Amino acid sequence: MEATAADSSGRDRYRSHLAGEGEKHTVWRHGAPPSYDAVNALFEAERTQEWPAGSLEEVVQNAIKTWEMELSHKARLSDFKSVSPGKFSLSVNGGRPRTGEETLAMGSYNALLDGPLLPSAGAYDASAETFQSSHDLFRAAFPRGFAWEVLKVYSGPPVIAFKFRHWGHKEGPYKGHAATGDKVEFHGVAVLKVDEQLRAEDVEVYYDPGELLGGLLRGPKVVATSEEDSGEVVALAERLSEAAAVSASGAVPPPQACPFLNPGKPQ
């Protein structure tokens, strides 16, 4: 049986800078360091890769998990140990790079899902969500957590390119859509520039939001106002799922096949 992911000191096997003297003055969003026991259990049960200790893949995987933990749970950028002071930026799908302070203010979900097409599709509106509401939304949808793993590393530091997988089980509601119990996952690639201490200076992430949101919208509305509304919900979920399937195949869809590529068409 695999050992638990947290040791008796409160440290985490996959994340640094959660405990110890270095965190004595850290300001935590919820008053104390978080526990990752649930999502660690999901990760260990369903990961597709188990990297050797000390391998480049393990180092990259744990570095990103640490960065996500700090972004989600530390209230001040000055308490981050995983980013290079004053140099960090994050861009998603070729969008405008955001500074560390901007990313911390909006939160990881809003940063990853901020775009002009998602609100018009009824899938996600980053401008309408706060840091807290966005995290509450995904915690409700994925009660066991939203696990993340490195699938492949293409290059080592100082410019690290890698492929990743992000997944969870939709065992709670999402924006009024009922729980389905289905596994929801998406894949992506990222380019991470680091300094000599392996602290992140620049992160570029590329992925298809349709892979994630198609799964989240698949459940029926908990309360539908009419049969017409229910039909529109199902149709939207189907279009998002089709977009994800097309993206995974590498084919280029006609505009009508993907709502994200045809924003002018009424949904």
Give a topology summary.
Blueprint: H1 37-46, H2 56-73, E1 89-92, E2 98-99, H3 100-106, H4 108-112, H5 117-120, H6 131-141, E3 147-153, E4 159-169, E5 183-194, E6 200-207, H7 209-216, H8 227-249
Parallel strand pairs: 1-6
Antiparallel strand pairs: 1-2, 3-4, 4-5, 5-6
Helix pairs in contact: 7-8
The shape, in one word, is globular
Average pLDDT figure: 85
User: Which stretches are low in confidence, meaning pLDDT under 50 for 5 or more residues running?
Assistant: 1-9, 225-230, 244-249, 251-267
Rg over C-alpha atoms, rounded to the nearest angstrom: 19 Å
Q: What is the CA–CA distance across the termini?
A: 50 Å
How is the biggest beta sheet arranged? Answer: 6 strands, mixed
Q: Which class best fits the helix and strand makeup?
A: alpha+beta
Question: From the structure provided, what is the oligomeric state, counting identical versus distinct chains?
Answer: single chain
What is the overall number of helices? 8
The total count of strands amounts to 6
Strand percentage lies at 15-25%
| Helix and strand run | HHEEHHHHEEEEHH
Enumerate the strands of the largest sheet in spatial order, edge to edge or round the barrel: 2-1-6-5-4-3
Q: Helix amount, in percent?
A: 25-40%
